[in-house]
Specification:
alpha/beta, 7 helices, two-stranded antiparallel ribbon
């Protein structure tokens, strides 16, 4: 296993990225992505990463690692998710090792469909779900891992979901995503399917970061006619964002701080 990187800098709430100072932001983003790629290229063995409520998740070398010492994206996604998902149906697109799917299930979701194009990722998710079930922390069958390409993986009768999660690729040259092709196409297809798969009063949460092309995700959501709000945090010299989207005909219900999940879902 590769040597553990140092802990990240202190996480702070952040304003939206300042695109008036893009040369500096680009330099910080390139530095982080270069470091992140080096850490991922050094991964050679299955790791067990401490994440949700002390649960250690299996992560294969070819699968995106949610290790908080490497990335803040899954952490901010989990912070932004509602703390109570009782009775809700959740779709997790690009589930990876299942970190967000399991987080949603632990918050009471009645059904979580976890989709990934990678067979390795879905195998990790299945193993991690089984481990949490054996520990008695989840009822059997709540999380259903499926191999497939975004919404194409769903059966025809899958219906609509109360929460759709998308912690999708941002850096095209990152090792877990090098075979996916143009990232913009993946993001466009993710957003295009929301109108068909999101429940009328549901919400989608899609991760982004300042090392990605500026405003790509907010612009895609706006062009799709969705109501959007943003949550930001800063660490590793990167501004991490979660775009929260709802169907246009639904009154905006902001994700106020009181509605957010606790910030202590990661073990030390």
């Amino acid at each position: 296993a590769h040597a553990a990187p140092p802990p990240p800098p202190t996480v702070t709430d952040a304003p939206p990225p300042n695109h008036d100072n893009e040369p500096e932001a680009d330099a910080l983003g390139r530095r982080y992505v270069g470091w992140w790629n080096a850490q991922n290229d050094a991964r050679r063995e299955v790791e067990h990463v401490p994440t949700i409520d002390g649960v250690r998740l299996r992560v294969s070398p070819t699968v995106f690692s949610p290790d908080a010492r490497l990335t803040y994206a899954p952490t901010l996604m989990a912070r932004t998710m509602p703390a109570d998902l009782s009775g809700r149906r959740v779709l997790d697109l690009g589930t990876g090792c299942g970190v967000l799917a399991i987080a949603a299930a632990l918050r009471g979701a009645a059904e979580v469909v976890a989709v990934d194009l990678s067979e390795d990722a879905v195998a990790d998710t299945a193993a991690n779900v089984a481990s949490v079930e054996r520990a008695g922390r989840l009822p059997r069958g709540v999380v259903r891992p499926i191999v497939g390409d975004l919404y194409d993986a769903l059966p025809p009768d899958a219906g609509r979901f109360d929460l759709i999660l998308g912690n999708l690729p941002i850096a095209a040259d990152a090792r877990p995503w090098r075979e996916l092709g143009p990232i913009a196409q993946t993001l466009e297809r993710c957003v295009a399917g929301l109108s068909e798969r999101l429940a009328p009063d549901g919400q989608a949460m899609i991760g982004w970061a300042s090392f990605g092309p500026p405003n790509v995700m907010p612009d895609l959501l706006d062009r799709a006619g969705l109501r959007t709000s943003m949550t930001h945090a800063e660490t590793f010299g990167v501004t991490w964002s979660v775009c929260v989207a709802r169907l246009a005909q639904v009154d905006d219900r902001s994700t106020a701080a009181g509605d957010l999940a606790p910030n202590a879902w990661l073990s030390g």
